[in-house]
Amino acid sequence: MVFIWFYVTLSPLINGPWAISAGGALATGYQSCEKYWWHNLFYINNFFDMTQNCYGITWYLAVDTQLYLVAPVFLIMLYMSWIAGYVLICLCIAASIAYVYYLTISHGFPAIMMTAFAMNDAENFGSKIADFFDLYYQKPWSRCTPYLVGIAVGYFLASGKKPKLNNLSVVSLWVLAAATALASLYGPHQYIKGENYWSTVVSGTYNNFSRFGWSLAVSWVIIANHLGWGGIIAEFMDHPMWQPLGKLSYSGYIVHFFFITYILNLDDRPSHFVSIWRSYIYAGIPTVVVSYVFAFFWSCLFEVPIINKQERKLRRKKKALLRSTTPNEQNYYYGKSGI
Length: 339
Description:
Layout: H1 2-14, H2 19-23, H3 30-41, H4 58-80, H5 82-107, H6 113-117, H7 127-137, H8 140-158, H9 167-186, H10 189-193, H11 200-226, H12 232-237, H13 242-247, H14 249-264, H15 276-323, H16 327-334
Helix pairs in contact: 1-3, 1-14, 4-5, 4-8, 5-7, 5-8, 5-11, 8-11, 9-11, 14-15
Organism: Cylicocyclus nassatus
Protein name: Acyltransferase 3 domain-containing protein
GO molecular function: acyltransferase activity, transferring groups other than amino-acyl groups
C-alpha cells in the first residue's frame, strides 16, 4: 500500500505522449486507486472488473495471496494421508482445466493475452479484453494449477524421499522438461503472427497446458537440482550471484510497471514499434536496470526490516517450543520429515 501511495502521487507527473496515446487506461490507472485502493488492501482486487483496477499488475499479488491462504487445506490433507492429498490436488487441477475449457469455448477467448488486444473492433472496443481479463486471466481458479503443482512438489521434497532413477531416465526427463518449456513459450509463434488459425478448443488447450506444462518443467528442474541430478545446471543455478537478485524479486515486481510507464513516456511522441532489438536496448534493459536499482532501496526501507522482525519473532517462538518439549517431540517437529 505504501507503493500505491507512491504510484498515485507521482504518476500524474510522469505522463507523456505515450500516456495519452497507446498507454490509455494503463497509464491513467492511478485514478482508480483514489477510489478503489481498499481492493488492494484486502487483496481482492482481482474479483473486480478492469475499470476498478488500481495499479494493474497487483492482480497477481491478490491471486498469490488467495492461493497462499487455501494452501493449508492441501497441506493438512497431505499430512493426514499423502494419497488423499495428492488425489485432492489432482481433482482441483482437473476442475480448473475443465473451467478454463468452458470459458474459452463459450466466450470465444483467444489463446493468449496478446491476441486479446487484437480482437477488438471499432464498434465494440475493449469488450473482449475486459471479458478475457475479468472472467479468466486474473481469477484464482483459472490460475491455481501451477500453485497446486508447487504444493505437491514441495511436499514430496520435504518428505526426504529420493526415487531411484538411472542416467537414461534422468536425461530423458531433462529433455522432456526442456521440450515442454519450449513448447509453452514458442508454441503459439505462428498464431501470434496471424499465420495460423486456432479453434476455441485448441486455444483452450493452450490456455490450460501452457502454464501447467511450464510448471511441470520448472518442477523437474527443482527436483533434479535438489536430488543431485542437476549437474552443470545445478551449479549455475546455485551460484551465489543469484541470491541478491532473488531477494529483490518481490520489490522488483512491484516497482517495474511504474518504470515501464516512466520510460515509455520519455519519448517526445507516441511510441511505435521499430524492431525487437531497439525495444530491448531502449526499453527492456533500462527498465530492468532501473527497476532493480530502485527495488534495492525500496526493499531496504520496507521489506527487509519487516522480514527481520518476523524472523526474530519466529526464532524466539522456536526456542520457547524447544525448551518446552522433549527430545522425541523435537525430532517429530524438526526431524528429517521437514514437517
